[in-house]
Amino acid sequence: MSGTPFVGWDDVASVAPGGLALIDDSGRFMKLNPAGVALCGGSTEAELIGVQSPFELGEGATVSQVGLLEDRPDEQVACWIPASGPSRELAYRARRVPTDLALTVVSFRDVTDEWQRQRRLAAIARTSIALATEGSLGATLDAVAQQIVRTDGLAGVQILILDSTGKELRLLGSAGLRHWDLFLDRLLECRDRGARLCMLDAVRDGQPVAVPHRWAQIHSDPAWEPLHAYLGELTWDSFASVPLMVRGRAEGALNAYFAPGQEISSRTLEFLAAMAEQAALAVDYATLLQREREGARQDERQRLARDLHDSIVQQVFSIGMQANAIGVLGDRGGHVPAAAVQRFAGEVGALSQAVLADLRAMVHELRPYPFTRLGLEEAVRALVRSTENRAGPACRMAFSKGLEALGPELAEDVYRITAEAIHNIVKHAEATSVTVRLVLRDHTLVATVADDGNGLVTDTPSTDSEGCRAGPAGPRDHGYGLTTMRERAERWGGTMKIKSRSGRGTTVRVVIPLPVQLPEPVPTESTADANDLQTVPL
Fold it and tell me: Chain-centre distance of CA 525, in angstroms?
Protein backbone atom coordinates (compact mmCIF):
# COMPACT_ATOMS: atom_id res chain seq x y z
CA MET A 1 0.00 0.00 0.00
CA SER A 2 1.29 3.43 -0.91
CA GLY A 3 2.20 5.54 2.06
CA THR A 4 2.61 2.49 4.38
CA PRO A 5 6.19 2.05 5.63
CA PHE A 6 7.76 -1.35 4.93
CA VAL A 7 8.33 -3.52 8.05
CA GLY A 8 11.02 -6.18 7.71
CA TRP A 9 10.45 -9.74 8.88
CA ASP A 10 13.29 -9.45 11.38
CA ASP A 11 11.48 -6.53 12.97
CA VAL A 12 8.31 -8.63 13.31
CA ALA A 13 10.17 -11.62 14.79
CA SER A 14 11.97 -9.40 17.27
CA VAL A 15 8.70 -8.30 18.92
CA ALA A 16 6.82 -11.62 18.58
CA PRO A 17 5.55 -12.72 22.05
CA GLY A 18 6.32 -16.39 21.38
CA GLY A 19 9.61 -18.12 20.72
CA LEU A 20 10.79 -18.51 17.11
CA ALA A 21 13.85 -20.49 16.03
CA LEU A 22 15.48 -21.58 12.79
CA ILE A 23 16.90 -25.12 13.09
CA ASP A 24 19.31 -26.85 10.70
CA ASP A 25 18.96 -30.45 9.57
CA SER A 26 21.07 -31.69 12.53
CA GLY A 27 18.71 -30.04 15.03
CA ARG A 28 20.98 -27.15 16.04
CA PHE A 29 19.92 -23.57 16.57
CA MET A 30 20.78 -21.24 13.67
CA LYS A 31 18.71 -18.22 14.66
CA LEU A 32 16.38 -17.23 17.54
CA ASN A 33 14.19 -14.25 18.25
CA PRO A 34 14.53 -12.45 21.64
CA ALA A 35 11.52 -14.29 23.11
CA GLY A 36 13.07 -17.62 22.10
CA VAL A 37 16.39 -16.69 23.72
CA ALA A 38 14.57 -15.85 26.96
CA LEU A 39 12.54 -19.08 26.91
CA CYS A 40 15.77 -21.07 26.52
CA GLY A 41 17.31 -19.30 29.49
CA GLY A 42 19.92 -17.42 27.47
CA SER A 43 20.97 -13.83 27.67
CA THR A 44 22.06 -13.42 24.04
CA GLU A 45 21.28 -15.13 20.78
CA ALA A 46 25.00 -15.77 20.16
CA GLU A 47 25.39 -18.12 23.11
CA LEU A 48 22.67 -20.42 21.73
CA ILE A 49 23.70 -20.51 18.06
CA GLY A 50 25.05 -24.00 17.25
CA VAL A 51 23.61 -25.54 20.43
CA GLN A 52 21.57 -28.73 20.02
CA SER A 53 17.89 -27.88 20.34
CA PRO A 54 15.45 -30.11 22.28
CA PHE A 55 12.98 -30.26 19.40
CA GLU A 56 12.27 -33.50 17.58
CA LEU A 57 12.23 -32.89 13.82
CA GLY A 58 11.60 -34.96 10.76
CA GLU A 59 8.92 -37.33 9.54
CA GLY A 60 9.22 -39.58 12.59
CA ALA A 61 8.18 -36.85 14.99
CA THR A 62 4.95 -37.71 16.77
CA VAL A 63 2.33 -35.36 18.13
CA SER A 64 2.01 -35.36 21.91
CA GLN A 65 -0.84 -37.47 23.25
CA VAL A 66 -3.93 -35.37 23.87
CA GLY A 67 -4.72 -35.05 27.54
CA LEU A 68 -8.04 -34.37 29.21
CA LEU A 69 -7.28 -30.67 29.69
CA GLU A 70 -5.21 -30.02 26.56
CA ASP A 71 -6.54 -27.91 23.71
CA ARG A 72 -3.52 -27.94 21.36
CA PRO A 73 -3.34 -31.48 19.97
CA ASP A 74 -1.01 -30.47 17.13
CA GLU A 75 1.78 -29.47 19.54
CA GLN A 76 4.66 -31.53 20.78
CA VAL A 77 6.37 -31.02 24.13
CA ALA A 78 10.12 -31.16 24.72
CA CYS A 79 12.14 -30.84 27.91
CA TRP A 80 14.87 -28.19 27.75
CA ILE A 81 17.69 -28.13 30.30
CA PRO A 82 19.47 -24.77 30.09
CA ALA A 83 23.08 -24.17 31.07
CA SER A 84 21.83 -22.75 34.35
CA GLY A 85 18.49 -22.75 36.09
CA PRO A 86 15.67 -25.31 36.30
CA SER A 87 14.54 -27.42 33.36
CA ARG A 88 11.59 -26.20 31.29
CA GLU A 89 8.90 -27.90 29.22
CA LEU A 90 8.43 -26.30 25.82
CA ALA A 91 5.43 -26.91 23.59
CA TYR A 92 6.29 -26.42 19.92
CA ARG A 93 5.25 -26.69 16.28
CA ALA A 94 7.72 -27.24 13.45
CA ARG A 95 7.46 -26.48 9.72
CA ARG A 96 9.98 -27.07 6.92
CA VAL A 97 11.14 -24.04 4.93
CA PRO A 98 9.72 -24.62 1.43
CA THR A 99 12.69 -23.04 -0.32
CA ASP A 100 15.24 -25.01 1.72
CA LEU A 101 14.01 -28.32 3.18
CA ALA A 102 17.18 -28.65 5.29
CA LEU A 103 15.90 -25.83 7.48
CA THR A 104 12.98 -25.91 9.91
CA VAL A 105 11.14 -23.05 11.57
CA VAL A 106 9.98 -23.80 15.11
CA SER A 107 7.52 -21.75 17.17
CA PHE A 108 7.50 -22.63 20.86
CA ARG A 109 6.17 -21.56 24.24
CA ASP A 110 6.80 -22.40 27.90
CA VAL A 111 4.17 -24.83 29.29
CA THR A 112 6.04 -25.87 32.44
CA ASP A 113 3.47 -24.42 34.84
CA GLU A 114 0.54 -25.47 32.67
CA TRP A 115 1.66 -29.08 32.49
CA GLN A 116 2.50 -29.11 36.17
CA ARG A 117 -1.04 -27.96 36.90
CA GLN A 118 -2.43 -30.72 34.70
CA ARG A 119 -0.29 -33.33 36.44
CA ARG A 120 -1.50 -32.08 39.81
CA LEU A 121 -5.13 -32.24 38.76
CA ALA A 122 -4.56 -35.75 37.42
CA ALA A 123 -2.89 -36.74 40.70
CA ILE A 124 -5.87 -35.48 42.69
CA ALA A 125 -8.23 -37.38 40.38
CA ARG A 126 -6.21 -40.60 40.64
CA THR A 127 -6.11 -40.25 44.41
CA SER A 128 -9.89 -39.79 44.52
CA ILE A 129 -10.27 -43.00 42.52
CA ALA A 130 -7.89 -44.81 44.88
CA LEU A 131 -10.05 -43.78 47.84
CA ALA A 132 -12.98 -45.59 46.26
CA THR A 133 -11.11 -48.90 46.02
CA GLU A 134 -10.76 -51.34 48.87
CA GLY A 135 -7.50 -51.39 50.76
CA SER A 136 -6.01 -50.65 54.13
CA LEU A 137 -5.63 -47.05 55.29
CA GLY A 138 -1.86 -47.45 55.31
CA ALA A 139 -1.80 -48.62 51.68
CA THR A 140 -4.11 -45.77 50.65
CA LEU A 141 -1.99 -43.11 52.35
CA ASP A 142 1.16 -44.63 50.84
CA ALA A 143 -0.47 -44.23 47.42
CA VAL A 144 -1.31 -40.58 48.18
CA ALA A 145 2.30 -39.90 49.22
CA GLN A 146 3.64 -41.59 46.08
CA GLN A 147 1.33 -39.53 43.86
CA ILE A 148 2.68 -36.32 45.39
CA VAL A 149 6.31 -37.36 44.96
CA ARG A 150 5.79 -38.44 41.35
CA THR A 151 3.77 -35.37 40.41
CA ASP A 152 5.87 -32.61 41.95
CA GLY A 153 9.25 -34.35 42.08
CA LEU A 154 9.56 -33.84 45.83
CA ALA A 155 12.31 -35.61 47.73
CA GLY A 156 9.89 -37.25 50.13
CA VAL A 157 6.46 -37.15 51.76
CA GLN A 158 5.11 -38.41 55.07
CA ILE A 159 1.49 -38.62 56.21
CA LEU A 160 0.89 -38.85 59.96
CA ILE A 161 -2.44 -39.12 61.73
CA LEU A 162 -3.68 -38.56 65.27
CA ASP A 163 -5.81 -41.02 67.18
CA SER A 164 -9.36 -40.23 68.31
CA THR A 165 -8.06 -38.55 71.48
CA GLY A 166 -5.70 -36.27 69.57
CA LYS A 167 -2.84 -37.32 71.85
CA GLU A 168 -1.15 -40.13 69.91
CA LEU A 169 0.63 -39.83 66.55
CA ARG A 170 1.11 -42.55 63.92
CA LEU A 171 3.05 -42.60 60.65
CA LEU A 172 0.81 -44.37 58.14
CA GLY A 173 1.92 -43.15 54.70
CA SER A 174 5.28 -42.29 53.18
CA ALA A 175 7.19 -42.09 49.91
CA GLY A 176 10.81 -41.30 49.22
CA LEU A 177 11.92 -42.08 52.78
CA ARG A 178 13.09 -45.45 54.01
CA HIS A 179 10.60 -47.22 56.26
CA TRP A 180 11.96 -47.07 59.81
CA ASP A 181 9.95 -48.34 62.77
CA LEU A 182 11.81 -46.08 65.19
CA PHE A 183 11.20 -42.79 63.36
CA LEU A 184 8.45 -41.53 65.65
CA ASP A 185 10.33 -42.65 68.74
CA ARG A 186 13.42 -40.72 67.65
CA LEU A 187 11.28 -37.73 66.63
CA LEU A 188 9.89 -37.58 70.15
CA GLU A 189 13.41 -37.86 71.52
CA CYS A 190 14.39 -34.81 69.43
CA ARG A 191 11.37 -32.97 70.82
CA ASP A 192 12.46 -33.81 74.37
CA ARG A 193 15.93 -32.44 73.59
CA GLY A 194 14.42 -29.08 72.61
CA ALA A 195 13.85 -29.48 68.85
CA ARG A 196 10.89 -27.62 67.43
CA LEU A 197 8.46 -29.78 65.46
CA CYS A 198 6.88 -27.59 62.78
CA MET A 199 4.37 -30.36 62.13
CA LEU A 200 2.86 -29.80 65.58
CA ASP A 201 2.54 -26.09 64.80
CA ALA A 202 0.58 -26.95 61.65
CA VAL A 203 -1.72 -29.33 63.56
CA ARG A 204 -2.23 -26.91 66.44
CA ASP A 205 -2.99 -23.87 64.24
CA GLY A 206 -4.75 -25.71 61.41
CA GLN A 207 -2.59 -23.85 58.87
CA PRO A 208 0.28 -24.95 56.60
CA VAL A 209 3.79 -24.19 57.85
CA ALA A 210 6.67 -23.69 55.39
CA VAL A 211 10.34 -23.53 56.39
CA PRO A 212 12.93 -22.68 53.70
CA HIS A 213 16.31 -24.42 54.02
CA ARG A 214 15.06 -26.58 56.87
CA TRP A 215 17.66 -29.33 56.41
CA ALA A 216 20.52 -26.90 57.02
CA GLN A 217 18.84 -25.85 60.27
CA ILE A 218 18.26 -29.44 61.42
CA HIS A 219 21.74 -30.60 60.42
CA SER A 220 23.39 -27.88 62.49
CA ASP A 221 21.18 -28.36 65.56
CA PRO A 222 22.38 -30.96 68.14
CA ALA A 223 18.81 -31.37 69.37
CA TRP A 224 18.08 -33.20 66.10
CA GLU A 225 21.07 -35.56 66.42
CA PRO A 226 18.91 -38.73 66.84
CA LEU A 227 17.50 -38.13 63.32
CA HIS A 228 20.58 -36.68 61.57
CA ALA A 229 21.59 -39.99 59.97
CA TYR A 230 18.07 -40.94 58.89
CA LEU A 231 17.09 -37.56 57.44
CA GLY A 232 20.56 -37.29 55.89
CA GLU A 233 19.76 -40.28 53.66
CA LEU A 234 17.37 -38.00 51.77
CA THR A 235 18.59 -35.23 49.44
CA TRP A 236 16.37 -32.33 50.47
CA ASP A 237 16.39 -28.69 51.48
CA SER A 238 13.11 -26.99 52.44
CA PHE A 239 10.14 -28.36 54.35
CA ALA A 240 6.39 -27.81 54.57
CA SER A 241 3.72 -29.34 56.78
CA VAL A 242 0.02 -29.20 55.88
CA PRO A 243 -2.66 -30.24 58.39
CA LEU A 244 -5.20 -32.96 57.57
CA MET A 245 -8.51 -31.31 58.37
CA VAL A 246 -11.53 -33.55 59.10
CA ARG A 247 -14.82 -31.90 60.09
CA GLY A 248 -12.99 -28.73 61.11
CA ARG A 249 -10.42 -30.56 63.26
CA ALA A 250 -6.80 -31.38 62.45
CA GLU A 251 -6.45 -35.18 62.33
CA GLY A 252 -2.81 -35.29 61.30
CA ALA A 253 -0.28 -33.71 58.98
CA LEU A 254 1.22 -34.13 55.53
CA ASN A 255 4.97 -33.43 55.61
CA ALA A 256 6.70 -32.51 52.34
CA TYR A 257 10.48 -32.56 51.89
CA PHE A 258 11.54 -30.38 48.95
CA ALA A 259 14.50 -31.23 46.75
CA PRO A 260 17.32 -28.65 46.51
CA GLY A 261 16.33 -25.85 44.16
CA GLN A 262 12.59 -26.41 44.53
CA GLU A 263 10.59 -23.38 45.61
CA ILE A 264 7.78 -23.50 48.17
CA SER A 265 5.32 -21.55 46.04
CA SER A 266 1.71 -20.76 46.84
CA ARG A 267 0.59 -23.08 44.03
CA THR A 268 2.64 -25.91 45.48
CA LEU A 269 1.09 -25.38 48.90
CA GLU A 270 -2.37 -25.35 47.30
CA PHE A 271 -1.60 -28.69 45.67
CA LEU A 272 -0.31 -30.14 48.94
CA ALA A 273 -3.44 -28.86 50.70
CA ALA A 274 -5.63 -30.56 48.07
CA MET A 275 -3.77 -33.85 48.53
CA ALA A 276 -3.93 -33.45 52.31
CA GLU A 277 -7.69 -33.10 51.93
CA GLN A 278 -7.76 -36.37 50.00
CA ALA A 279 -5.73 -38.03 52.74
CA ALA A 280 -8.08 -36.60 55.37
CA LEU A 281 -11.05 -38.06 53.49
CA ALA A 282 -9.34 -41.45 53.54
CA VAL A 283 -8.77 -41.17 57.30
CA ASP A 284 -12.37 -40.14 57.91
CA TYR A 285 -13.72 -42.90 55.66
CA ALA A 286 -11.54 -45.54 57.34
CA THR A 287 -12.64 -44.38 60.79
CA LEU A 288 -16.32 -44.53 59.90
CA LEU A 289 -15.93 -47.88 58.15
CA GLN A 290 -14.02 -49.34 61.10
CA ARG A 291 -16.74 -48.25 63.52
CA GLU A 292 -19.41 -49.78 61.31
CA ARG A 293 -17.52 -53.05 60.95
CA GLU A 294 -16.75 -53.27 64.65
CA GLY A 295 -20.38 -52.68 65.54
CA ALA A 296 -21.57 -55.32 63.08
CA ARG A 297 -18.97 -57.83 64.25
CA GLN A 298 -19.79 -57.34 67.91
CA ASP A 299 -23.53 -57.67 67.27
CA GLU A 300 -22.93 -60.89 65.35
CA ARG A 301 -20.63 -62.29 68.03
CA GLN A 302 -23.17 -61.55 70.73
CA ARG A 303 -25.97 -63.18 68.76
CA LEU A 304 -23.98 -66.32 67.96
CA ALA A 305 -22.72 -66.58 71.52
CA ARG A 306 -26.28 -66.35 72.86
CA ASP A 307 -27.61 -68.91 70.37
CA LEU A 308 -24.83 -71.40 71.13
CA HIS A 309 -25.24 -71.03 74.86
CA ASP A 310 -29.02 -71.28 74.84
CA SER A 311 -29.21 -74.38 72.62
CA ILE A 312 -26.17 -76.49 71.74
CA VAL A 313 -24.18 -76.05 74.94
CA GLN A 314 -27.13 -76.97 77.15
CA GLN A 315 -28.01 -79.98 75.01
CA VAL A 316 -24.48 -81.33 75.11
CA PHE A 317 -24.42 -80.77 78.87
CA SER A 318 -27.60 -82.85 79.13
CA ILE A 319 -25.93 -85.67 77.18
CA GLY A 320 -23.14 -85.64 79.69
CA MET A 321 -25.60 -85.83 82.57
CA GLN A 322 -27.40 -88.75 80.96
CA ALA A 323 -24.11 -90.55 80.45
CA ASN A 324 -23.35 -90.07 84.15
CA ALA A 325 -26.77 -91.47 85.02
CA ILE A 326 -26.12 -94.55 82.92
CA GLY A 327 -22.87 -95.00 84.78
CA VAL A 328 -24.73 -94.90 88.07
CA LEU A 329 -27.16 -97.57 86.86
CA GLY A 330 -24.28 -99.71 85.78
CA ASP A 331 -22.82 -99.50 89.24
CA ARG A 332 -26.02 -101.02 90.69
CA GLY A 333 -25.80 -104.16 88.59
CA GLY A 334 -28.86 -105.75 87.02
CA HIS A 335 -29.65 -107.34 83.69
CA VAL A 336 -27.36 -104.96 81.77
CA PRO A 337 -23.68 -105.90 82.08
CA ALA A 338 -22.13 -103.32 84.36
CA ALA A 339 -18.83 -103.22 82.46
CA ALA A 340 -20.55 -102.43 79.19
CA VAL A 341 -22.63 -99.68 80.73
CA GLN A 342 -19.62 -98.20 82.47
CA ARG A 343 -17.61 -98.28 79.26
CA PHE A 344 -20.47 -96.62 77.40
CA ALA A 345 -20.87 -94.00 80.10
CA GLY A 346 -17.15 -93.24 80.04
CA GLU A 347 -17.07 -92.87 76.28
CA VAL A 348 -20.18 -90.74 76.07
CA GLY A 349 -19.09 -88.64 79.04
CA ALA A 350 -15.63 -88.05 77.58
CA LEU A 351 -17.08 -87.20 74.19
CA SER A 352 -19.65 -84.82 75.60
CA GLN A 353 -17.02 -83.08 77.72
CA ALA A 354 -14.78 -82.64 74.68
CA VAL A 355 -17.63 -81.24 72.61
CA LEU A 356 -18.65 -79.00 75.48
CA ALA A 357 -15.09 -77.67 75.80
CA ASP A 358 -14.95 -76.94 72.08
CA LEU A 359 -18.27 -75.16 72.08
CA ARG A 360 -17.35 -73.11 75.12
CA ALA A 361 -14.15 -72.12 73.33
CA MET A 362 -16.24 -71.05 70.35
CA VAL A 363 -18.49 -68.94 72.57
CA HIS A 364 -15.38 -67.51 74.20
CA GLU A 365 -14.02 -66.54 70.78
CA LEU A 366 -17.27 -65.10 69.46
CA ARG A 367 -18.07 -62.91 72.47
CA PRO A 368 -16.39 -59.46 72.26
CA TYR A 369 -13.23 -59.85 74.27
CA PRO A 370 -12.98 -57.67 77.41
CA PHE A 371 -9.42 -56.48 76.78
CA THR A 372 -9.88 -53.48 79.05
CA ARG A 373 -10.42 -55.92 81.94
CA LEU A 374 -8.43 -59.01 81.02
CA GLY A 375 -5.50 -57.57 79.08
CA LEU A 376 -3.74 -58.81 75.94
CA GLU A 377 -1.32 -61.14 77.72
CA GLU A 378 -3.99 -63.04 79.65
CA ALA A 379 -6.21 -63.20 76.56
CA VAL A 380 -3.41 -64.80 74.52
CA ARG A 381 -2.53 -67.14 77.42
CA ALA A 382 -6.15 -68.35 77.56
CA LEU A 383 -6.17 -68.87 73.79
CA VAL A 384 -2.90 -70.82 73.84
CA ARG A 385 -3.98 -73.01 76.77
CA SER A 386 -7.28 -73.79 75.02
CA THR A 387 -5.43 -74.66 71.81
CA GLU A 388 -2.97 -76.88 73.67
CA ASN A 389 -5.75 -78.75 75.46
CA ARG A 390 -7.85 -79.29 72.33
CA ALA A 391 -5.31 -79.70 69.52
CA GLY A 392 -2.30 -81.19 71.24
CA PRO A 393 0.80 -79.19 70.10
CA ALA A 394 3.11 -78.15 72.92
CA CYS A 395 2.97 -74.36 73.27
CA ARG A 396 5.57 -71.98 74.65
CA MET A 397 4.87 -68.34 75.42
CA ALA A 398 7.01 -65.26 76.09
CA PHE A 399 5.66 -61.83 77.01
CA SER A 400 7.44 -58.61 77.87
CA LYS A 401 6.26 -56.03 80.37
CA GLY A 402 4.09 -53.13 79.31
CA LEU A 403 1.50 -54.99 77.18
CA GLU A 404 -1.25 -53.91 79.55
CA ALA A 405 -0.72 -50.30 78.40
CA LEU A 406 -1.85 -51.05 74.84
CA GLY A 407 -5.18 -49.57 73.81
CA PRO A 408 -8.13 -51.97 73.54
CA GLU A 409 -8.47 -51.66 69.74
CA LEU A 410 -4.78 -52.34 69.10
CA ALA A 411 -4.80 -55.16 71.67
CA GLU A 412 -7.77 -56.82 69.96
CA ASP A 413 -6.14 -56.60 66.52
CA VAL A 414 -2.91 -58.15 67.87
CA TYR A 415 -4.98 -60.85 69.56
CA ARG A 416 -6.89 -61.60 66.34
CA ILE A 417 -3.64 -61.78 64.34
CA THR A 418 -2.21 -64.22 66.89
CA ALA A 419 -5.41 -66.27 66.96
CA GLU A 420 -5.52 -66.54 63.16
CA ALA A 421 -1.85 -67.61 63.03
CA ILE A 422 -2.49 -70.31 65.65
CA HIS A 423 -5.65 -71.42 63.85
CA ASN A 424 -3.66 -71.86 60.62
CA ILE A 425 -1.06 -73.91 62.47
CA VAL A 426 -3.66 -76.26 63.97
CA LYS A 427 -5.52 -76.63 60.68
CA HIS A 428 -2.64 -76.94 58.22
CA ALA A 429 0.81 -77.34 59.74
CA GLU A 430 0.65 -80.69 61.64
CA ALA A 431 3.06 -79.11 64.09
CA THR A 432 4.22 -80.61 67.38
CA SER A 433 5.31 -77.33 68.97
CA VAL A 434 4.25 -73.69 68.77
CA THR A 435 6.01 -70.60 70.15
CA VAL A 436 4.18 -67.33 70.75
CA ARG A 437 6.08 -64.14 71.63
CA LEU A 438 4.76 -60.65 72.28
CA VAL A 439 7.65 -58.26 72.89
CA LEU A 440 7.95 -54.50 73.25
CA ARG A 441 11.22 -53.13 71.85
CA ASP A 442 12.08 -49.44 71.55
CA HIS A 443 8.49 -48.28 71.32
CA THR A 444 7.66 -51.08 68.88
CA LEU A 445 5.47 -54.16 69.36
CA VAL A 446 6.83 -57.37 67.81
CA ALA A 447 4.44 -60.34 67.70
CA THR A 448 5.85 -63.71 66.56
CA VAL A 449 4.09 -67.05 66.10
CA ALA A 450 6.38 -69.91 65.02
CA ASP A 451 5.82 -73.65 64.53
CA ASP A 452 7.80 -76.72 63.48
CA GLY A 453 5.20 -77.99 61.01
CA ASN A 454 5.04 -78.65 57.29
CA GLY A 455 5.48 -75.07 56.15
CA LEU A 456 3.32 -73.18 53.70
CA VAL A 457 2.56 -74.80 50.36
CA THR A 458 2.07 -72.05 47.76
CA ASP A 459 0.99 -72.06 44.15
CA THR A 460 3.38 -69.23 43.30
CA PRO A 461 5.84 -69.05 46.16
CA SER A 462 7.57 -65.76 46.85
CA THR A 463 11.06 -65.63 48.34
CA ASP A 464 12.45 -63.21 50.85
CA SER A 465 16.04 -62.06 51.34
CA GLU A 466 16.92 -65.19 53.31
CA GLY A 467 15.57 -67.58 50.70
CA CYS A 468 12.44 -68.33 52.69
CA ARG A 469 8.96 -68.33 51.31
CA ALA A 470 7.14 -65.21 52.40
CA GLY A 471 3.63 -63.76 52.28
CA PRO A 472 1.35 -62.76 50.86
CA ALA A 473 1.41 -65.93 48.72
CA GLY A 474 -0.19 -68.82 50.57
CA PRO A 475 -2.63 -71.73 50.36
CA ARG A 476 -5.91 -70.89 48.77
CA ASP A 477 -7.94 -72.19 51.71
CA HIS A 478 -6.52 -69.73 54.22
CA GLY A 479 -5.37 -66.88 51.97
CA TYR A 480 -8.23 -64.73 53.22
CA GLY A 481 -7.02 -65.21 56.79
CA LEU A 482 -3.52 -64.06 55.84
CA THR A 483 -4.95 -61.02 54.07
CA THR A 484 -6.99 -60.10 57.13
CA MET A 485 -3.94 -60.46 59.36
CA ARG A 486 -1.92 -58.19 57.09
CA GLU A 487 -4.70 -55.57 56.96
CA ARG A 488 -4.94 -55.55 60.76
CA ALA A 489 -1.20 -54.87 61.00
CA GLU A 490 -1.28 -52.17 58.31
CA ARG A 491 -4.14 -50.45 60.09
CA TRP A 492 -1.61 -49.43 62.76
CA GLY A 493 1.21 -48.63 60.33
CA GLY A 494 2.77 -52.07 60.88
CA THR A 495 4.11 -54.83 58.65
CA MET A 496 3.69 -58.61 58.53
CA LYS A 497 6.27 -61.03 57.17
CA ILE A 498 5.95 -64.79 56.76
CA LYS A 499 8.96 -67.07 56.53
CA SER A 500 8.43 -70.73 55.74
CA ARG A 501 10.49 -73.71 54.62
CA SER A 502 8.99 -76.98 53.49
CA GLY A 503 9.09 -79.42 56.41
CA ARG A 504 10.85 -76.91 58.67
CA GLY A 505 7.99 -74.80 59.95
CA THR A 506 6.59 -71.32 59.50
CA THR A 507 7.16 -68.04 61.33
CA VAL A 508 4.71 -65.15 61.24
CA ARG A 509 6.27 -61.88 62.43
CA VAL A 510 4.27 -58.68 62.88
CA VAL A 511 5.97 -55.37 63.71
CA ILE A 512 3.78 -52.46 64.79
CA PRO A 513 5.25 -49.06 65.72
CA LEU A 514 3.43 -47.87 68.81
CA PRO A 515 1.91 -44.39 68.78
CA VAL A 516 3.90 -41.67 70.47
CA GLN A 517 2.29 -39.48 73.07
CA LEU A 518 2.39 -35.85 71.99
CA PRO A 519 4.01 -33.76 74.70
CA GLU A 520 2.63 -30.48 75.86
CA PRO A 521 4.11 -27.66 73.76
CA VAL A 522 7.20 -26.09 75.30
CA PRO A 523 8.25 -22.66 73.97
CA THR A 524 11.67 -22.94 72.36
CA GLU A 525 13.58 -21.42 69.49
CA SER A 526 16.25 -24.11 69.43
CA THR A 527 15.77 -25.29 65.89
CA ALA A 528 14.67 -22.22 63.99
CA ASP A 529 13.93 -18.62 64.73
CA ALA A 530 10.26 -17.78 64.73
CA ASN A 531 10.81 -15.64 61.63
CA ASP A 532 11.89 -18.77 59.70
CA LEU A 533 8.52 -20.45 60.28
CA GLN A 534 5.90 -19.25 57.84
CA THR A 535 2.28 -20.02 58.66
CA VAL A 536 0.61 -19.90 55.28
CA PRO A 537 -3.19 -19.44 55.13
CA LEU A 538 -4.80 -20.89 52.02
Answer: 32
